[in-house]
UniProtKB/TrEMBL annotation:
Sorted UniProt keywords: Cell wall biogenesis/degradation, Coiled coil, Glycosyltransferase, Golgi apparatus, Membrane, Signal-anchor, Transferase, Transmembrane, Transmembrane helix
Organism from which the protein derives: Anisodus acutangulus
Signal peptide feature range: none
Primary site of residence: Golgi
GO molecular function, one term: glycosyltransferase activity
Gene Ontology biological-process annotations: cell wall organization; root hair cell development
Enzyme class: transferase
A single Gene Ontology CC term: Golgi membrane
Sequence intervals crossing the membrane: 14-35
Name of protein: Glycosyltransferase
Domain Nucleotide-diphospho-sugar transferase: 180-398
Tagged with keyword Glycosyltransferase: yes
Length: 425
């Protein structure tokens, strides 16, 4: 015990010396001097067992420095090794790119920042693609017009020529009644330009373009429908989200309040119930195959290319280009079929599919006339719901049915829909 006291006294002296000489030395060392009993515990480092001298703390620092130096050497070696691996991988990548066109597509994936996958059930793929950088130079006149009309960079767009003048009137009157400000008629002839101006309807006529104008003036229903894919491109390039609308549509609420905006294309469906609109497993039966007679197929009723919301993204513009290109090269094709094929078919040998995200609109909010006349008007609950729009796409007597829809949903005439057959006769 006496020895202990003696050493205790020595340590106080050592502390004073250390305080005088080693101000600014690591705080941890100073603490060691403050608790001298610690130096006699079994865990104490060998160096501390010697007489407490200022030197001892210096030795300890030196030891730490040495340890850090060796740690540093180790990390440098590891770093060099990793750099070597990166070099090797880059070389492999370059070789792959040179030998193979597909490697360029791969590189997009390789160069995007890798992420760890989160826990089970939390991972979500990219579905909302980034918008393109607006390019006003593609059409300064349209850019100026849209900057005045659009709301939140969104606009309803309809193409019209004189053949659809009466329906156009019901169309824009329903839009005005709801109070939707952001809509635009793309006039395909001068009669429609004048008609819109008379009625205070925002109108745009494209600069003359022989190919387009010929179809626009004289084209039938399907030919005009094909035109829109060319015309829409500029709207997207200018950075606008477009709700493309045929004119055989009655607006009952503002559709912009009912969009999800999470997909490149958000479209109304030609489906007439949940299954047909949202997709189902349709089992095909081939009895001669015996045990394997049932073949499962994925089915969905087509999207209606007369009413869809399209975001200004690269996949959206690629879709428009693909459809327009095919409609030109295959003159007898139907734009709605082409539109759906491009959206639906996956890549396969000799073909690269379109990587666009898509969403089917609610069939009771964005209602086609089959849903209305076959189901909704006969269902006590469904007939109380007010759709956002009704598209008279399934019936050739469009004009009287459009007016009946207005009577029923806007003017509250309960029997306005009753006179019409489910289908056409
Ligand atoms: C149809 O789908 C909607 C939305 O998912 C759902 O609320 C409704 O119950 C479904 N109706 C039927 C008859 O399955």
């Amino acid at each position: 015990m006496a020895g202990r006291r003696e050493k205790y006294g020595q340590s106080i002296r050592g502390y004073r010396i250390a305080g005088a000489i080693a101000i600014g030395v690591l705080l941890g060392c100073v603490f060691a001097f403050l608790y001298p009993s610690g130096f006699f515990s079994p865990q104490t480092r060998p160096l501390s067992k010697s007489n407490l001298q200022v030197d001892s703390s210096n030795c300890e620092s030196t030891e730490k420095v040495n340890m850090m130096k060796s740690e540093n050497r180790r990390l440098s070696e590891k770093n060099a090794e990793l750099q070597k691996q990166v070099r090797e991988l880059n070389q492999k990548l370059q070789v792959a790119e040179q030998g193979n066109g597909r490697a360029q597509e791969q590189q997009l994936v390789v160069s995007s920042q890798p992420q760890k996958a989160g826990p089970f059930g939390t991972v979500k793929s990219l579905r909302t693609n980034p918008p393109v950088l607006p390019d006003e130079s593609v059409n300064p006149r349209l850019a100026k017009l849209l900057s005045e009309i659009a709301v939140n960079k969104e606009v309803i767009v309809a193409l019209a020529n004189s053949n659809v003048k009466s329906m156009l009137e019901v169309w824009f009157n329903s839009i005005k009644k709801v109070g939707i400000p952001n809509y635009l008629v793309v006039a395909l002839d001068d009669t429609i330009v004048d008609f819109c101006k008379e009625n205070d309807v925002p109108v745009y006529k494209r600069d003359p373009d022989e190919n387009v104008d010929f179809i626009g003036k004289s084209g039938g229903n399907h030919a005009v429908s094909g035109l829109k894919f060319r015309i829409l491109r500029e709207f997207l390039q200018l950075g606008y989200g477009v709700l493309l609308s045929d004119v055989d549509i009655v607006y009952l609420q503002n559709p912009f309040d009912h969009l999800y905006r999470d997909s490149d294309v958000e479209s109304m469906s030609d489906g007439h119930n949940n299954m047909t609109a949202y997709g189902y497993n349709d089992v095909f039966d081939e009895p001669s195959m015996g045990w394997a007679r049932y073949a499962h197929t994925m089915r969905i009723w087509v999207y209606n290319s007369g009413f869809f919301y399209i975001r200004p993204t690269i996949p959206s513009i690629e879709l428009l280009d693909r459809v327009a290109d095919r409609l030109t090269k295959q003159p007898n094709s139907w734009d709605q079929a082409v539109f759906n094929e491009e959206l639906a078919f996956p890549s396969h040998p000799g073909y690269i599919g379109l990587y666009a995200s898509r969403r089917t609109m609610d069939i009771y909010q964005f209602m086609n006339s089959k849903v209305l006349f076959k189901t909704v008007r006969k269902d006590a609950n469904l007939k109380k719901l007010k759709p956002v729009i009704v598209h008279v796409n399934y019936h050739p007597d469009k004009f009287p049915r459009m007016k009946a829809v207005v009577e029923y949903y806007v003017n509250g005439k309960q029997d306005a829909l009753d006179a019409f057959p489910d289908g056409s006769v």
